[in-house]
Amino acid sequence: YFEVKSMDNKIRFITTDSGKGFSNEDIKSATKQFYMGDCSRASKSHYGIGLYITQSFVNLHGGNLHIANSLVTGGAQVVIEIPICK
Fold first, then answer.
1. Which of 17, 30, 52, 66 is deepest in the core (most CB within 10 A)?
2. Phi–psi pair at 70, nearest 5 degrees
3. Which pTM does this prediction carry?
4. C-alpha separations of 17 from 7, 22, 39 in Å
5. Which residue in 20, 3, 21 sits closest to 12, CA to CA?
6. In this structure, are residues 55 and 31 in contact, taking their beta carbons and an 8 Å threshold?
7. Average pLDDT over the chain, rounded to whole?
């Protein structure tokens, strides 16, 4: 699922899935360069750089990145918040 919302002078991009979610270690380490979590993620189509690049982009724009599990689906949820320029 993908949502875009504007609230509190920020734009929020919310991505949620219905998979098994993040482990506690994933939540702590997901933005580390080349982090791939469990060994099932170590494939030729996954390099462990997506959330690292996302964190860099968010930092450049003075925003926040939130990584958690969805209370609704139980799957992974990534929220990007970027301040809206005035």
1. 30
2. -70, 135
3. 0.87
4. 22, 11, 20
5. 3
6. yes
7. 91
